[in-house]
Specification:
- The protein is mostly beta strands.
- It has one domain (2-57).
- Helix content is 9%, strand content 15%.
- It contains 1 helix and 2 strands.
- The chain has one helix at residues 52-57; strands at residues 22-26, 43-47.
- Strands 1-2 form a two-stranded antiparallel ribbon.
- The chain is flat.
- The structure holds zinc ion (ZN).
- Zinc ion binds next to β2.
């Protein structure tokens, strides 16, 4: 499926040629929007550095939760 795209990260613009791994991400999560799971406009290509899920795994989430 990646071949249908220019296959580069929508955030930083890097591609596999730049040595990053690319992921196809659902803009709206499948769990909440199952009807959009196969919707072409709901896909975006992210590299491993820009994928928010990976940031969380690396202990560096985009937004820190606030505990009161
Ligand atoms: Zn990126």
């Amino acid at each position: 499926m990646l071949k249908k795209y220019a296959a580069k990260c929508v955030y930083c613009g890097r591609s596999r040629r730049d040595g990053v791994k690319l992921h196809v991400d659902h803009i709206k999560p499948r769990s909440k929007y199952p009807q959009l799971a196969l919707e072409f406009s709901n896909f975006q290509v992210l590299c491993e550095n820009c994928n928010p899920e990976n940031r969380i795994l690396m202990g560096n989430p985009p937004e820190k939760p606030v505990c009161l």
